[in-house]
UniProtKB/TrEMBL annotation:
Residues 323-339 have a biased composition (Polar residues). The keyword Metal-binding does not apply. Keywords: Membrane, Transmembrane, Transmembrane helix. The chain crosses the membrane at residues 36-59, 71-90, 124-144, 156-177, 197-216, 237-261, 273-291. The lineage of its organism: Eukaryota, Fungi, Dikarya, Basidiomycota, Agaricomycotina. Residues 313-339 are annotated as: Disordered. The keyword Transmembrane applies. It comes from Ephemerocybe angulata. It comes from the Eukaryota. This is Uncharacterized protein.
Length: 339
């Protein structure tokens, strides 16, 4: 999926750069939306913290039951959680810096906004870096899952990878510009920002679509062959879980695009919210897949689903059933992890 990504997170930084003409908003409006963005993100991070703990408990329970979970799943979810936690912590630090000092109560709006928009401070500049890293981490994580699901096919991943590389290019350019705003004209950056947010929406939608299509295709073949999973989550249920979970992040990306093109300051709110939302998407898939597997008829396995071996051979590639398993009609299977 899951979000992103999004270097579309860049749009939040655009709000801070309104003095260069990217967004037209006065100081009071900006500060009001920033405070709302802070509380929305903090609330979502609280939800994310709870879901992350539940997901990790599920993953470690499965490992204790010898149901192997790839370390990349643990590392990926933990990295996204760390980025969200660090960003939320920096936000707290920034507000304390403005209002937590003895003179904080008398800090003028102009002074507060000037600080929040000044990239010469590390805690302001790191905001841009964390936003982009969250996007790239989320996109890489979902692309890895897509690659695994498509039997490690590099051909299938060429377009998603090209989109990610383009996103990296525009994102790095944005990070550079926030420290050197005299090097690139703001009118040029406007197009780079717009390109970035569109790239992230297209990339996320494409990768999620490839995953959903792969599962749907396998589901149809399994039904047609009369093969059903003896345990684990039904493939159609898994496809629905992935699409529904990923749609949360996709919706956030779509909102950012609409709001940014309209020049609305509430872009800042959605952009801040998308940081914990990126991680929430992945832990939701783990939790919901586990819940589906525990439901009546869901099988005894956790968040795994099964691919019949005889449907993953040359027959799956359209060359017919040539393996012994296919000829004998065995029901041997292998599993793929959804956590």
């Amino acid at each position: 999926m899951y979000m992103t990504a999004s270097d579309i997170h860049t749009t939040g930084m655009m709000a801070r750069a309104s003095s260069t003409g990217l967004l037209d908003e006065d100081d009071e409006t900006y500060l009001r939306y920033y405070l709302i963005a802070y509380w929305v993100e903090a609330t979502l991070f609280g939800v994310y913290w709870f879901l992350y703990m539940v997901a990790m408990a599920i993953i470690y329970k499965r490992r204790a039951q010898s149901q192997s979970t790839p370390l990349i799943s643990i590392a990926g979810n933990t990295f996204l959680f760390s980025l969200a936690g660090l960003h939320n912590g920096v936000n707290v630090y920034r507000l304390l810096k403005i209002y937590g000092s003895p003179s904080g109560a008398t800090t003028s709006t102009a002074v507060a906004v000037s600080y929040l928009r000044s990239n010469k401070y590390w805690d302001v500049y790191i905001h841009a870096i964390l936003l982009h890293f969250t996007t790239w981490a989320g996109d890489s994580f979902i692309m890895y899952r897509c690659w695994i699901l498509w039997n490690r096919s590099y051909k299938i991943m060429l377009l998603p990878l090209a989109i990610l590389m383009a996103s990296l290019g525009t994102g790095i350019t944005s990070i550079y510009w926030f420290k050197h705003q005299d090097k690139i004209d703001s009118s040029v950056m406007r197009y780079i920002f717009r390109t970035t947010i569109i790239l992230n929406l297209v990339g996320n939608t494409l990768t999620t679509g490839l995953i959903a299509y792969r599962i749907w295709k396998q589901h149809r073949r399994s039904r047609k062959a009369g093969v059903h999973s003896s345990s684990g989550v039904d493939l159609f249920t898994l496809m629905r879980i992935i699409i529904e979970s990923a749609s949360i992040y996709t919706l956030a990306q779509l909102l950012i695009i609409i709001l940014f093109f309209r020049g609305h300051p509430s872009t800042l709110i959605v952009q801040h919210a998308s940081i914990p939302v990126t991680g929430i998407v992945f832990v939701l898939i783990v939790i919901r897949a586990y819940g589906a597997s525990r439901a009546p008829g869901g099988g005894r396995m956790t968040s795994k689903f099964e691919f019949p071996t005889r449907l993953r051979t040359s027959h799956e590639l359209g060359e017919g059933d040539t393996t012994d398993n296919a000829q004998e009609g065995t029901s041997s299977s292998r599993t793929l992890d959804t956590s």
